Amino acid sequence: MLAFAFCCLLLPTPQAPTDxxxxxxxxxxxxQVTRTDVAVEMAFHLRRQDLGQKALDVLIDSHLTRxxxxxxxxxPTDAEVRKFWQDLQAELRAAxxxxxxxxxxxxxxxxxxxxxxxxxxxxxxxxxxxxxxKATDKVSGDLLRxxxxxxxxQAKLVLDPDALPAGVAVAIDDTRxxxxxxxxxxxxxxxxxxxxxxxxxxxxxxxxxxxxRERGCEPTAAQLEAAIxxxxxxxxxxxxxxxxxxxxLLEAQGYTLVSLQRSxxxxxxxxxxxxAQQLHPDAxxxxxxxxxxxxxxxxxxxxxxxxxxxxxxxxxxxALIPRSFQAAEAHLLQVLExxxxxxxxxxxxxxxxxxxxxxxxxxxxxxxxxxxxxxELVLDAGFRQANGEVSKPLRGPDGVYxxxxxxxxxxxxxxxxxxxLRTRHAQELQAQILRDAKLRFPEARPARTAK
Length: 451
What we know:
single chain; alpha+beta; Chitinase A, domain 3; 3-stranded antiparallel sheet; disordered N terminus
């Protein structure tokens, strides 16, 4: 019961359109981000992902439960739901948990929460009635799931987004559930960080689309098709994908070519590229290279694929970081000896203490000299060494590194260099758009006290 009540998402009901989550500036004028704005963005962005699929299951189950309870007169009274909520809170507190700290409780009004819990009670009543159980008999989670499976078999469901009208999340019998309701369901159990990420996405997309309109860079159907063709070409050239067509790669993420072309995020990416082409044409980029050849090469020239073995160190060491810098350096000198006999990836999977690269055998991928994703001492070693060479132990602020050059890219031709520079400018424009929007969040609201 507890797991079902608080690990699931809440049933959506209409939200007040004035519920403002943030403010910003759009074209020099004040603008707002509402719960509805964020809900719609979450719905379209997450609809095809695992989280969205789970939320959609809860949406369907809630609809089927309400319909059956109304038909059979099994909806509980308000007083019964409140009593159930009080008992549930007491159980949680007895287990050392605070109900008001659950995302589902903090992000939901009391009325919405009670409606969801009422459906939980209704579902138990429906199962008891069907099995001829007493009102005091416990209903297991397995029985609840079996009942829902039977309800689904009897319902006519349309789940494929490409088979539904725009703006519809799912069709259940004769009911079409709007995407905004689906998004509100997702929003109610999102963490503060997840919510704020989508607030920022709403602001960025609105600001980018306004700039694209102003500068005549809204992507046409032909430009979107060309961008998809370029994605397909890049996918074929990527060794990791082993020649899989773009359609298959998209399918693994729950997308189709049609849904990709309709995606607001994808359209924004194409618009950003068009803006970068307009603001930074080839002639401007050539002048940039001529003015600072070394800087251009560092930002967009030949890349190097770097492998890193990292060992944490601290002076003095403690229980969490047991090695001093001297001990870490001595250990990595021993590792160097092993690297003369064993493959780098094999040793790195054992020795490196960087969790992100450990599964990849210390492989940090391709980097330009001016990369911001690796410490300067790692980049310096990686771009001074020959291909295949391993550095001596390098002391950093929080540990010691071994750096190996795994591969070296040939110098790019002019067209590739200019495109890479343009891509960097596009990334800078993306950051500038957000800065200019002056996004502001209201003061954090206190957690709602459970009643």
